[in-house]
Write a structure and sequence with these properties.
about 230 residues, alpha/beta, Rossmann fold, 7-stranded parallel β-sheet, 3-stranded antiparallel β-sheet, 8 helices, about 20% strand, globular, binds ligand LXAUTJHC, hydrolase
């Protein structure tokens, strides 16, 4: 079973960041042109900072853009590991300061306890996503779909209408909240942002046959209704 991807390769991280920012800005602009509002989900982790900076400088009617996260660690934004903190620092600045940001974490003690409230805050967004920018870990996780995670099945095949799921895995560190697979697959643009040779090898392995539970990025690659656009640099 081979995954459908469209590769965009770049010489370095700065060139990739600019190109990905332009691609996402175009997707947002197209949706706004048609429906007046657009939504975007971005990932956290170490990779996206330069891309988010570049996107923040794009000229768009940002007051018509709703931004949320692909996934989040269940911890306050005061933590260095908070994905929301990354988005506030790198995307919600410059032109994009006018965007509406909807984080996924609330004051509940666990993702399971906070899921209904987080889902309710997502309800007013203009769905489906105009763009969803995924990352990928060296273990083949994407979003918070970690290999053999507790909650993985519900995140990949949720009850109808569920936009969020709670997952936990030793490799994930903290408990997580994540967009569900159907929400990601509905996005008009699904981009996968990866940097380094080792991550490219992980992607090659993920594209080969093998269980989804071992490398959950396979769930996206195999089920995506359109090519997943891979943005890569060494
Ligand atoms: O845990 C996470 O990891 C992935 C990949 O992060 P990176 O640091 O290797 O770029 C990220 O896409 C996800 O949003 C994050 O929660």
């Amino acid at each position: 079973m081979s995954a459908t991807i469209e590769r965009h390769d770049f010489a370095n991280s700065a060139a990739l960041a600019e190109a990905l920012a332009s691609r996402v800005a175009d997707a947002l602009q197209a949706r706004i042109g048609e429906f007046d509002r657009a939504s975007l989900a971005v990932s956290g982790g170490r990779t996206p900072a330069a891309f988010l900076d570049a996107l923040s400088r794009k000229l768009l009617p940002w007051d018509r853009v709703w931004v949320t996260l692909v996934d989040e660690r269940w911890m306050p934004e005061s933590s260095e590991r908070s994905n929301a903190r990354l988005v506030r620092a790198h995307l919600l600045q410059n032109e994009a300061a006018a965007a509406h940001f909807v984080p996924l974490v609330n004051d509940a003690p666990t993702p399971e306890a906070g899921l209904a409230e987080a889902e309710a805050l997502l309800e007013p967004l203009p769905w489906p996503l105009a763009a969803c920018v995924l990352g990928m870990g060296g273990d083949g996780h994407t979003a918070s779909f970690f290999p053999h995670a507790e909650g993985l099945n519900a995140a990949l095949a949720p009850p109808p209408g569920s936009r969020l799921a709670a997952t936990s895995a030793q490799a994930a560190g903290e408990p997580r909240v994540t967009l569900t697979l159907p929400v990601i697959l509905e996005a008009s643009l699904i981009a996968l942002h990866i940097e380094s040779e080792p991550k490219l090898r992980v992607l090659d392995t993920a594209r080969a046959a093998g269980p989804v539970e071992d490398m959950p990025v396979r769930a996206v690659l195999r089920a995506s209704p359109r090519p997943v656009e891979v943005f890569w640099c060494p």
